[in-house]
């Protein structure tokens, strides 16, 4: 009886733990970190680089392997004085000279290091894409909330205007105008819902998920963001940019390749040893052969010249990349500063003033102190400043995300 109770108790614990696990898995917190973890796990771009790392590890192993010896059958002097000649075996081995094998290993290690570094670069780029897409979805949902609230307000105004028209205290044109405003608000809601669908589709694509229904994302818009200087942008975004570091790795690899072409002039040594028995004399014979090619015609000057030119190309590409990053950083910094100032001004000054104005006019309209056009103007103003605030918040969100991601983002995000 005691054993049966223990088994029942154990089953209840396991069932509860399993149920909690399923509940947790079924109800994830749809914040920015959740989608970034999801993208890091499922984004195909990250998977590609991981496979490239595996391939680079295999190439490094291959580069470190020594050349295989050649073992074969050896016969000569067949038919001499009617004999079967000499028959035996031989072993031939190529011995790389000039540290070629070590340079091949260094080149393979450089490529592996680049792919490992590129993985962190791609992960940061994908996280930036997710942050921007997440911010757009968050802004789109908040925009819909504002439009829904103002649509309800327009509906109330339309009903009160209809009552005023029936009582003869307002003209028919006021009712028609309120109906037009209500229909426009309804149309804007439809457009906002479409923006949410599009933003969700882009976020799904980056995260590598398909077919899931739109979720309500959670997060705060950027409020007061500490101002940053242009010198800080240059130091943290341009000089420490991962793309710059990756190109420097490529330059170092090209230097190794140039060195590899230069040592090609040092000929490899070929060694051969053979043993055979002569059927005519019955004697055992050994042969030793050592040789190397003489670089008389092919001194590898073409490959050396090409490698030197490629090295200069990469050096100039590094200068071009720094220039492009400086221009892009200037554009993002401009957007960041403008959006930061606008977001703060709307939130602290303009929106409170518009809300107070709408409240005053709303009360005056109910007390017949203001006409319909006064409340129309007040609500239009409130809608406009709220939408402008969201536009500034979206630009600030994107600028901060791109600066945090060191100007890294994929082609999916425009």
What does this structure look like?
The chain is elongated, with a radius of gyration of 38 Å. The chain has two domains: 1-26; 31-404, Outer membrane efflux proteins (OEP), CATH 1.20.1600.10. A four-stranded antiparallel beta sheet has the order 1-2-3-4, with no helix packed on it. Helices cover 70% and strands 8% of the residues. The longest helix is centred in the first third of the chain and has 67 residues, at 100-166. With 414 residues, it is of the alpha+beta class. The two termini are 69 Å apart.
Secondary structure topology:
Layout lengths: L1 H25 L5 H11 L1 H20 L6 E7 L9 E10 L4 H67 L5 H36 L22 H9 L3 H21 L6 E10 L5 E8 L9 H66 L5 H33 L10
How does the major sheet shape up? 4 strands, antiparallel
The shape is elongated
Which strand-content bin applies to the residues? Answer: 5-15%
CATH topology of the largest domain: Outer membrane efflux proteins (OEP)
**Could you name the ranges where pLDDT drops below 50 across 5 or more consecutive residues?**
1-27
Work out the radius of gyration: 38 Å
Strand order of the largest sheet: 1-2-3-4
**What's the level 1 CATH class of the largest domain?**
Mainly Alpha
- Average pLDDT, all residues: 82
According to CATH, the homologous superfamily of the largest domain is Outer membrane efflux proteins (OEP)
- The number of helices is 9
Helix content: 55-70%
- What number of structural domains do the residues give? 2
Please trace the helix and strand order, writing H or E for each element: HHHEEHHHHEEHH
The rounded distance between the terminal residues' Cα atoms is 69 Å
